[in-house]
UniProtKB/TrEMBL annotation:
Cellular component GO terms held in the UniProt record: plasma membrane
Compartments where found: Cell membrane
Protein name according to UniProt: ABC transporter permease
GO biological process: one example: transmembrane transport
Stretches that traverse the bilayer: 67-88, 100-122, 142-171, 192-214, 250-270
Amino acid sequence: MRRALTPYLLVLPGGLWLLLFFVVPAATMLSLSLQEGDVVNGYVFTGHWQTYADAIVTYRTQFLRSLTYGAITTLVLVGVAFPVAYWIAVHGGRRKPAYLLLLLSPYFVSFVLRTISWRQLLTDEGVLLGPLKSAGLLSAQFHVLGTPVAVIGGLVYTFLPFMVLPVYVALERIDPRVVEAARDLYAGPAAAFRRVVLPLALPGVFAGVLMTFVPASSDYVTSAVLGGPSTTMIGQVIQAQYLSSSNYPAASALSATLMAVLLGGLFAYARALGTADVLTVAAR
């Protein structure tokens, strides 16, 4: 009897955690999205699905912009993180832990403080643009803050470790003898990388995509600090609806729609590419 209950007792803490901090909030959010009323008189569940249609039509631009920013950020991260992870895994030697620590060291500082620091760096008269404008290399009208470049750059900086680490783990799992065998079969460095290293590293890339696309698409701090009116993301809209307008049904409908879109995309992604190796890499 005791042995039969052991698996259930082991999963109980995690199950309770998911129940309290995911299932209950998600159910509350879905219920609130179908209610009508106001803060003063309270909200009543009426099954008002029109809230979803109105919210999507009104904020479809921010929805599409968020997904676009998330996709671009993820693609840039793959291009930036893979060489970094490859160099650490292949050429890091005994200093691999030190290089990983250096990569993660900025993240011991608060996320908000780091984002605000980037705002100070990217101001028109900051240490980056100020000297270039003074030297006449940039026009006085040139600016970075408030543009998609600033927002996507901030997102790339924020989520870089979430791409580097799973790719690094996948590269570390590759047996060097496999690469040596490819070289023995007269494969050049480029062919060995393309036909051996890259396919074996793909589970890490897939895990990194899963870990970066979702938070990048739903981020609101980076776009609020580094962006402007033309770069508003759906996370900012949801925050404003909750905290400023107190329009809880609309905010809940937007949140539920965003969650459904992201989950649908992730399920399709996992079904197309498989999850066994991805989950193994992500769990390490």
